Amino acid sequence: MGFLGDLGAFIMTPLYYVISAVLVAWHWALDEIGLNGDSGLVWVLSIIGLTLTVRAALIPLFVKQIKSSRNMQLIQPKVKELQKKYGHDRERLAQETMKLYKESGTNPFASCLPLIIQMPIFLALFRLLDKHAARGDGKAFITKDLAESFQSADLFSVPLKATFLRNDGSTAVMIVAAILVLAMTATTFTTQRQLMSKNMPPDALSGPYAQQQKLLLYVLPVVFAVGGIAFPVAVLFYWTTSNLWTMGQQFYVIRNNPAPGTAAAKAKADRDRAKAARHGHGVVETVDPVTEAEAEVRPAARQQPKKQSREQRRKAAGAPAPKAPQPKLKAQQPKPKAQQKPRQPKPKSSPEGEQQ
Fold it and tell me: What does the pLDDT read at residue 179?
């Protein structure tokens, strides 16, 4: 247990300093503009500022998550083919599936990467506020004075250090904590549901990847709801704000850059056509492919032939090519007997004629 404790301290200590530095910086900035640094409002705004800073720093990971999610969606037909081919051999199926992931540059765990990164940050903030600041003890850049300020801070008569379980008999604490837990749970469910209903093609709604998404859809909200009743109100503000950021960020990506072949892609194509019609432009084709039904209705693009001869153009049109005149061959051919004039015999000279 001592080794695990030392390992946890080795991992968490840098996070304590980073998280406390950002939190104290926001608290100092709000205090400098004239707000009361000891009020619960300033501490809540500082926590929201910390959340925005962390989520902005995680944008590159979110971009990787989007790319990986799209790759997972696009290779689902190939994954299904592998399942049909090697369904009887699980070891071979796993090998071929990992080979497909490697060839397509897909990381099946990248979709969970932002969540995995956020968990240590969340745990560091939880321990800073619940184990140190709430008890008036300083930690990292949170001095003893700041810890005592947080310990006495409240918002609408609700102490920020209180939890749904540790409410000291206060109904206001239970109501505010319950509202924040429900908001945290609802935003988590809505974000995952939005991804599955609008930005996943039909082929991706079955198979291992779909099962993983469904697991996240129903399990994560339950986990947050159960664990949320033990979180301080200040930490609930952090997690709810983070979920709202995720929901808005994902809504923007799905609306403006949807995955091909999804309901969101079709909706974007309809919006682009309507926008082009309003501005008097022609039909604007989007980068994403259309559905099969639209592809069948749309006529194929005409291809112009490249420098074809007259005979090749007649053949392409289906008309028989005329025979080329052959004057030399006709001159050499004899005329039919019906058209030939009878040859006049040449008169022979007689001796009498010669005498005359």
Answer: 93
